Automatic annotation (TrEMBL):
Pathway: Cell wall biogenesis; peptidoglycan biosynthesis. The active site is at 249 (proton donor/acceptor), 265 (nucleophile). GO terms for molecular function: transferase activity. Pfam families: YkuD. This is L,D-transpeptidase. The chain crosses the membrane at residues 21-43. Residues 170-288 form the L,D-TPase catalytic domain. Keywords: Cell shape, Cell wall biogenesis/degradation, Membrane, Peptidoglycan synthesis, Transferase, Transmembrane, Transmembrane helix. One of its GO terms (biological process) is regulation of cell shape.
């Protein structure tokens, strides 16, 4: 029996060793399989993220290709300036930019929609300063910007790659019904004043617009500086020798800057004019009835 017991113990030990080896192999395969699965999952997810709709951020390459526009086609396109008119531009007078702006650092074609035919050329400067336009939408590496040209509310899409973006905390509200202009920063009011606005026959146009630039007109004495907006008179094609651009400017007398007294421009007191000097171009301006 002792002999049988020794043989029995040896067989059991061999079986245990065999079982341990088999389990080790199985566990090893399971570990390898899990590692492979995890690797595929991790790297697969990373690849999906890179090609996901999030790549529509301005810094990413456009998912919608940018058409090549021949030089002769560009030369025939209308220029998006305060003197220009972009007849085929999509119109949007309501969408707020929330302070998002983009610098058009080079003369750039604008498109009716991403990847479509060009409708305009946006110059890199306005009134001698760099062009900063409000961004009201973005999609797959493209951004929709407000244009300073007619008709009011004109917009265009541009590829965002290589262009600088910024966020301004300044905003302006012109309430025509209340007869006031209010300038805010970070949502906090910095100043509010009564205004002069367009007469009944030449009303100040309503809708979302922006600060396009500033200039000094040596031919006039009513304001030391004029702040041009990205909107135009709806009733006048021109006034004062200009293209009917609506502006914010001063006026030498108080009675001349209160009520419906202008051809569409917004007249403000010296304090309002001074605070406008702090605003960056592209600052959103909401004009309401």
């Amino acid at each position: 029996m002792t002999q049988q017991g020794k043989h029995g113990s040896g067989d059991n030990g061999a079986a245990r060793r065999l079982m341990t080896s088999v389990l080790g192999v199985v566990v090893g395969f399971l570990v390898v399989a899990l590692l492979v699965f995890a690797g595929v999952k991790i790297f697969g997810d990373r690849g999906t993220t890179a090609a996901s709709p999030a790549s529509g951020s301005p810094s990413a390459a456009p998912a919608i290709p940018v058409p090549k526009v021949p030089a002769d086609v560009l030369a025939k396109l209308p220029r998006a300036t305060t003197e220009g008119k972009v007849a085929n531009a999509p119109i949007d007078l309501r969408t707020a930019s929330e302070g998002r702006t983009i610098n058009i650092a080079r003369d750039l074609p604008g498109f009716a929609k991403p990847g479509a035919d060009p409708i305009t050329v946006i110059p890199k400067s306005q009134f001698g300063s760099a062009t900063w336009l409000p961004v009201i939408n973005q999609r797959s590496g493209w951004v929709q910007v407000r244009l300073p040209a007619r008709p009011n509310g004109a917009t265009a899409w541009v590829p965002a790659a290589g262009l600088g973006m910024a966020q301004t905390s300044w905003s302006v509200k012109v309430a025509l019904g209340a007869g006031t202009i209010t300038v805010s920063k970070d949502g906090t009011e910095q100043g509010s004043w009564p205004i002069g606005q367009g007469m009944a026959a030449t009303p100040t146009p309503v809708g979302q617009t922006f600060l396009l630039g500033s200039f000094v007109d040596p031919k006039q004495t009513f304001s030391p500086v004029i702040y041009a907006l990205g909107t135009h008179s709806d009733t006048l094609d021109t006034y004062g020798g200009g293209p009917g651009t609506v502006a914010v400017h001063g006026w030498p007398t108080q009675e001349g800057r209160i009520g419906k007294v202008s051809h569409g421009c917004v007249r403000v007191p010296p304090a309002g004019l001074a605070i406008f000097a702090k605003l960056p171009t592209g600052t959103p301006i909401d004009i309401t009835a």
